[in-house]
Amino acid sequence: MTMPTHLDPFTHAQWYALGRDEDFPDGRKTQTRLLSQDLTVLRRGRTIEVTLPQGQPRPTQHRYGHVWTTFSDTPRALYDIPEFEEVERRLITAGAVHVRCSGLRAVENFLDMAHFPFVHTGILGVEEHAEVEKYDVSMDVERDEIWATNCMFFQPVAAATAKAGGTTKYKYRLPHPYSVILYKTCPPRPGEWDLIGLFIQPTEEDVCIVHSFVLVFDQDNTDTELLHFQQNIFLQDRIILENQIPRRLPLDMRLEIPTRADASSIAFRRWLKANGVTWSTVRAGDME
After folding, report:
1. Residues 181 and 169 sit within 8 Å (Cβ to Cβ)
2. Which residue, of 74, 93, 101, 157, is most buried by count of CB atoms within 10 Å of its CB?
3. 188-233 pLDDT, tens per residue?
4. What is the pLDDT of residue 153?
5. Are 101 and 241 in contact (CB under 8 A)?
6. Domains with residue ranges and CATH for the chain
């Protein structure tokens, strides 16, 4: 397939989540969009076909509770999340949430700890503990992905399993321009990590569909309770995301002034710029 002229090569080369199997009714065609192009999804039993408007089929794969496709004939390999193979973990998926912002903005917001006390007050933060302590950001050159480690933040209710407030340890992983994974302290199992992640389907440059998951050790809460906990947090974020200006992500640091707390965001923007990403971004001199 010839690369669409509106896409940069790095964006074009990725796999993208389109939803869960159950999001596509058996025997019925479902219309969706990806990277400003229409797609048709048809499920026949356990088989899912994805086609362009002209009928050309696109590759698919089932990973991490979702269906993935790509526009590239030679895509980058989809990253591994080995924790999905651990049988004691519970996977909860939240379905599709439409958000009027760049998918890159949604990724960056997920990285931002500074908003916890003000957007998720009483859950992920409190104003008396608003400081973001220094953390480490590094590049895994072999896998071409970013890690933010040694992240610490006081949280009154860090997880559905939390019994009291305390300092939570975080790690953030950026293996893909439209995917981000959070590893956080697991209250029932000290030394283990719970995972929360976003698989983002960029429909337009300034509109996206967010597919999210939690992969946790939790024997106390029902699926519904875990789902409601995560949905409550994300819907609070959605209000902020849809009011950001510009809706696309500026890559030039002169367009938005970062602080020390934005180390992961700075690394993310530099990584996108180094890989030649232009789609869904704002360039210098192109402010909306």
Report:
1. no
2. 101
3. 888 899 999 999 999 999 999 999 999 999 888 888 988 888 887 7
4. 73
5. yes
6. 13-69 (2.20.25.680), 87-274 (3.90.380.10)
